[in-house]
Amino acid sequence: MPSLPQVLFYVFAGLAVGGGVWLLLSKNLLHMAFALLLTLLGLAAIYVLLYADFVAVAQIMVYVGGVLVLILFGLLLSSNATGSFVAQEPVNRSIGLLLAVVLLGGGIWALVQSFDAAFGHYPAVPALAQQAALGHYTSLHGLGKQLISTYVLPFEIASVLLLVALVGAAAITKQTSRK
Amino acid sequence: MMAIPLLHLLVLGAILFCLGLAIVLTKRHAIAILMGIELLFNAANLNLVAFAQYDPDRLQGQVYSLFVMLIAACETAVALAIVLQVFKYFKTAHLQDIDQLNG
Amino acid sequence: MAELQTLLLVAPVLGQSLSLLERVTVAGLLLMPLLSFLSLFLFGRKLPRHGDWLAIGFMGLSLTGALFLFSQVWGQTPLHSEFTWFLLPQPNGEVVSMQAGVYLDNLTAVMLVLVTFISLLVMVFSVGYMKGDALYARYYAYLSLFTACMLGLLLADNLLVLFICWELVGFLSYLLIGFWYQRQAAAKASTKAFLVNRIGDVGFLWALFAFFAVFKTFNINSAQALLATLPLQAEQGVMLLLGFGLLAGAMGKSAQFPLQVWLPDAMQGPTPVSALIHAATMVAAGVYLLARCFPFFLPEVLLTMAIIGVFTAFIGALAASQQQDIKKVLAFSTISQLGYMVMGVGVGAPEASLFHLITHAFFKASLFLISGIVIHAIQHAWHHHSNKILFEAPIDVQDMRNMGGLRMMLPLTFVCYGISAGALVGLPFFSGFLSKEALLLASVQWAQAGAGWQWLLPGFGFATVLLTAYYMARQLLLVFFGRPRLKLPLKSYKYSPRQEVSWTMLAPVMLLTVLSLWVFFSWSPLSSEQSWLVPQIASALAANSFFPANGHQAHISWILYLSLAMVVLGGALAFFTRQAVRAKQFTKPVMGWRYWLKNQFFLNEAYAFVVVRPTLALGRLTEKTDHILNYGLHAFSKGFVAISKLIAWGDRWVVDGAVQVVGWSSRQVGHLGRSLQNGNIQSYYLFSLLGLVALLFWLFY
Fold it and tell me: Which ranges does the record mark as transmembrane (chain A) (predicted)?
């Protein structure tokens, strides 16, 4: 009998994979954006189940609130008057799908083959779950401490990177062709 | 208390990764390909978060996943800016039609 | 935090066997050009003189560091230090640790000095040459960064780091070829160079996969140690992939046939850049790689390498003999000389190749810088002139038809040119003679040891000597002799009434020219055997166990006379046809075979034309033939339907089917060939993924 978190996991995993498949099969770019939304939300829910509440919130804020909105804007700005959001037929369809399926099959096969050897010694109940079982658990404290101690330099570099990306994106978009 | 089996998480990550790969390979529109790349990032992130469960003190996986998100956001912003410029210049965002480097 | 240390380049100095001073020097050697790049890139415009003194000063410090390391390492045991780069857990629980580090032996040391020295001279030269350019600071920034990456390439002890630096120097080459990116030709040339190099780099990448698959490490020295213990029969296929992949990488970077097409176009970059990157250092990286990886090549790979090398040398020299652009002659000559070097590795004499690399770096850099001086002088004169006469069509300042008689205006440059050209064609008493002699000797010994047809290779080698003498003498005659063909006042060619060119430009050239004399490389002007360089370099290289060792290193004296005869013959040919050459080159548009040679057999067009179109046409033709046959057979079988239905059946299925299969398959081959080069980013991604899947498949079975 699977426990509630497990059931929820399969539901949300189904949601994420369904979103991904829709994303792959859809020809309409707007539909694709919505499919991506589904996948992202499903993954956010799975993160909560994995005791990564902050990552889940960040997933929703950054991806849904930021990236996806950006993508929608991009779609609006890059659709010409005649072409609607309906994308044309896919390219390298057979070979692309074949390659993906081969990689997937090979990957799952390799995972199943070597899983016990590689991760069999991991405890059945992960350490975070044990901590969570002791009371209310949030990863927020741990993450906060890590970010200002061990990872403070990457953190600062990341902030500079963000700034650079921001300025760069603005600069590229503003550029007019010098012809 | 039953935890979510690690293997299933890894398989889910693999499925999402291959979906992303298929999207990157088969879509025409640059923004569709960007969405595929986001999916690839997410698949990788899932693995990081899954493994972070076993690391309660340092939460390395979760920290990494935050950085990945950050990089993904930067990447999207810059890539979209480039797509817009490309669209302005070539009047199309279909990568198949942009083959100036055809040899 | 270990990753960050790597990023900040602190870790490489945490070594074992390097002393503290040496570690600091290595770090300084790499950091100094980087620092100069950063400061110039960010603040170059604000600095006085746009910061050229800063770049030159840092490069001077780098040279000092390189000289110090040279003094520490030369003739001693190699120094090696490494640190754990990253850890790679395996599915079976064990952890593979990836090491990266610095490896310093005789070869590295001498190359470090070479790169920093030429880089410094080129920077000094550029003070005069690039004066007043809008992006002056950025130019120096790029040059500094290039040098840093090149030093990284030389210092790397493992192929992965080497590959990273390899890609970086390629990128810097792209930036510098397209430095005047407003010119369409320069922008196109840079893209072309980049893309053609990509083809080679895909090979390199596959070689890396294969390397790791076989040796489970990227470290060259550890892999060499492992080589003896491997069951090589079983690994034959991967070793072939490894060898051919490395060869492909070197063919891209060192401009070997059929990937040499980018190098002539790369002359769109500023001339000092051509001297530094596209003659002396970066293009030699391919040869350096081949020499470093020499023990890993199977005999098949070496044979291919030798043939490609000598063929490139020959057609490069052929193409050089018909160019009108002063820089293009030198570019094709570089291709030809690189061909010699690749051939040298192929015939089992990597130390001779590296010796030629070193001597070639000096005299070719000198020749390029001289061509820069000449171009500058013509520009100066024309500028002077066109200020007075308006509305005249601009001239091509690099065209040798616009030169002539420059020995009167630029006497010192002329002398330098004569010496450097003497070194290039291989006259005795010059450095080029020694190294070319060593290469030819190696090829002759190789032919002696092998089958009869192998004599073709030294044969082509000697023919190339003749052609080299011809094109250099032709250039000398066209540029410096005769009368000035532009009717401009002679004084206007000069930098100032007293001086032919500014000292910043002349001094580096003179220094390089002096270093083209034999005495710096060997006491004996006629033989490389007494060279102090070659044995030390040879000691740094591991032997190839697959290669039949040619025990006799005997001096073969007729090589000397034959190559001298070839040089004299080539020079005489140029001298006695000088009138015809001048007349033809100057008046008529060259046609016929000259035109062919000039455009290097239309190889560029050939890629579009010879490979793609004929296959398509063949496909269509066979399809058409197939239709005709179909009709004919149909009528035929109708006429003889009474004889047998069996024959008709046989006709339709056997004959027809075969023709159809031929037509269809040649069409498919055409499509395949074309689709590989479709300029489409997704396809490239697809191909690399296919390669990955194939390799994973191979690895797990």
Answer: 6-25, 32-50, 56-78, 90-112, 151-172
Specify whether the CB–CB gap between C192 and C262 falls below 8 A.
Answer: yes
The C-alpha atoms of residue C682 and residue B26 are separated, in whole angstroms, by 8
**Mean per-residue pLDDT pooled into runs of 10, chain C (701 residues):** 42 53 81 85 79 86 89 82 78 78 86 91 88 84 90 89 91 89 85 84 89 84 80 78 90 86 85 85 88 87 90 88 85 91 88 89 91 85 66 69 79 88 87 86 84 85 90 87 75 72 84 84 72 78 70 69 85 80 53 61 62 68 78 73 70 79 85 71 82 82 72
Task: Identify the CA nearest to C426 among candidates C437, C417, C413.
Answer: C437
- Comparing C-alpha atoms, which of C507, C378, C528 is closest to residue C439? C528
Tell me the angle at which helices A69-77 and B60-90 cross, rounded to the nearest 10 degrees: 10
Tell me if C371 sits within 8 A of C273, measured CB to CB. no
Give the span between the Cα atoms of B61 and B75, in whole angstroms.
20
Amino acid at C484: P
Torsion sign, CA atoms C256, C257, C263, C264: positive
Distance CA C428, CA C573 (A): 19
CA atoms of C406 and C375, how far apart (whole Å): 11
Two tokens, residue A55: 């990552």
**Ordered structural domains, chain A, with CATH:** 4-148 (1.20.120.1200)
Which structure tokens are listed for C43? 């603040």
| Rounded distance between C-alpha atoms, residue C342 and residue C336, angstroms | 10
| Residues within 8 A of A (CB atoms), B 21-80 only | 21-23, 25-32, 34-36, 38-39, 42, 45-46, 49-50, 52-59, 62-63, 65-67, 69-78, 80
**Residue A161: closest CA among C700, B71, C83:** B71
Angle at C473 between CA C472 and CA C475, to 5 degrees: 65
Establish whether the linkage from the previous residue to C258 is cis, with ω within 30° of 0. Answer: yes
Q: Which two tokens stand for residue C369?
A: 């810088």
CB-based contact, B100 to chain C, within 8 Å: yes
Extents of the domains making up chain C: 303-587, 606-700
Smallest Cα–Cα separation from B41: which of B8, B72, B7, B3?
Answer: B72
Q: Which residues contact C395 (CB under 8 A, 6 or more apart)?
A: C378, C382, C402, C486
Tell me which residue has tokens 């033989």. Answer: C527
Give pTM, 2 decimals: 0.64
Tell me, what amino acid is at C244?
F
Cα gap A58→B49, rounded to integer Å: 13
Residue C80 per-residue DSSP state: E
Distance CA A153, CA A156 (A): 5
Pairwise CA distance, residues C594 & C588, whole Å: 12
Write the single-letter amino acid at B49.
Answer: V
Contact C633, C656 (CB under 8 A): yes
Q: Please report the ipTM that was assigned to this predicted complex.
A: 0.91
In whole angstroms, what is the distance from residue C483 CA to residue C485 CA? 6
The residues that bridge with C522 in the sheet, in sequence order, are: C531
By Cβ distance, the residue of A3, A89, A103 closest to B18 is A103
Q: Which of B25, B95, B102 is facing C686, going by the closest CB pair?
A: B25
Say which residues have a Cβ less than 8 Å from residue A141's Cβ, sequence separation at least 6. Answer: none
Q: Which of residues 63-102 of C touch A (CB under 8 A)?
A: 89, 91-93
Give A77-145 as a DSSP string.
HT--SS--SB--PPSSHHHHHHHHHHHHHHHHHHHHHHHHHHHTTS-SS-HHHHHHHTS---SHHHHHH
* DSSP assignment of C398-445: TBGGG---HHHH-HHHHHHHHHHHHHHHT-TTBHHHHHHHHHHHHHHH
Q: Write the CA distances from A62 to A57, A68, C527, integer angstroms.
A: 8, 8, 70
